[in-house]
């Protein structure tokens, strides 16, 4: 039987593209923090949750494979619990991303218009027809 580190590596390697995307997302969330703090915070939390779910779940699965003192029924219960936990964590992460994408956005009418213009004068598109070019 293989040792635990090599099994863990075999399980984590296929997930590396996801880890890279999540790390890039974390860096972007930090870069845009001042401009969009709420969106960045929600994105940061979601990506950290994805990373924790993937890494933690993999470590637990590998540990469960290596555990010799568990019955098949005990393993089954633990696997079921871990599967549900990982699904809930992923669902929360996706909900956070959806909130970051679609939540708390201001409409064109809510944006502060050019001085001298009232918000009611701004069309739905947010582009005035009399805008100088």
Task: Describe the secondary-structure layout.
Layout: H1 4-12, H2 16-31, H3 37-66, H4 72-102
Helix pairs in contact: 1-3, 2-3, 3-4
Fraction of residues in helix? 55-70%
Number of strands: 0
Q: What is the SS-derived class?
A: mainly alpha
User: What separation lies between the terminal Cα atoms?
Assistant: 72 Å
Can you give the mean pLDDT? 85
Work out the radius of gyration: 23 Å
Q: List unreliable stretches of 5+ residues.
A: none
The DSSP helix count reads 4
What is the H/E order?
HHHH
Largest sheet report: none
Tell me, briefly, the overall form. Answer: elongated
Give the strand content: under 5%
Describe what this molecule looks like in 3D.
The structure is a single chain. Helices cover 65% and strands 0% of the residues. With 133 residues, the protein is mostly helical. The chain has a domain at 34-104.
């Amino acid at each position: 039987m293989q040792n635990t580190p090599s099994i863990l590596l075999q399980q984590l390697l296929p997930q590396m593209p996801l880890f890279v995307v999540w790390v890039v997302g974390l860096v972007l969330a930090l870069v845009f923090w001042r401009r969009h703090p709420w969106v960045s915070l929600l994105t940061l939390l979601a990506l950290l949750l994805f990373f924790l779910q993937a890494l933690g779940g993999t470590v637990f699965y590998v540990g469960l494979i290596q555990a010799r003192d568990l019955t098949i029924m005990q393993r089954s219960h633990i696997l079921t619990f871990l599967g549900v936990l990982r699904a809930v964590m992923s669902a929360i992460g996706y909900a956070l991303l959806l909130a970051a994408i679609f939540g708390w956005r201001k409409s064109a009418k809510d944006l502060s218009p050019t001085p001298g213009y009232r918000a009611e004068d701004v069309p739905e598109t947010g582009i005035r027809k009399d805008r100088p070019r």
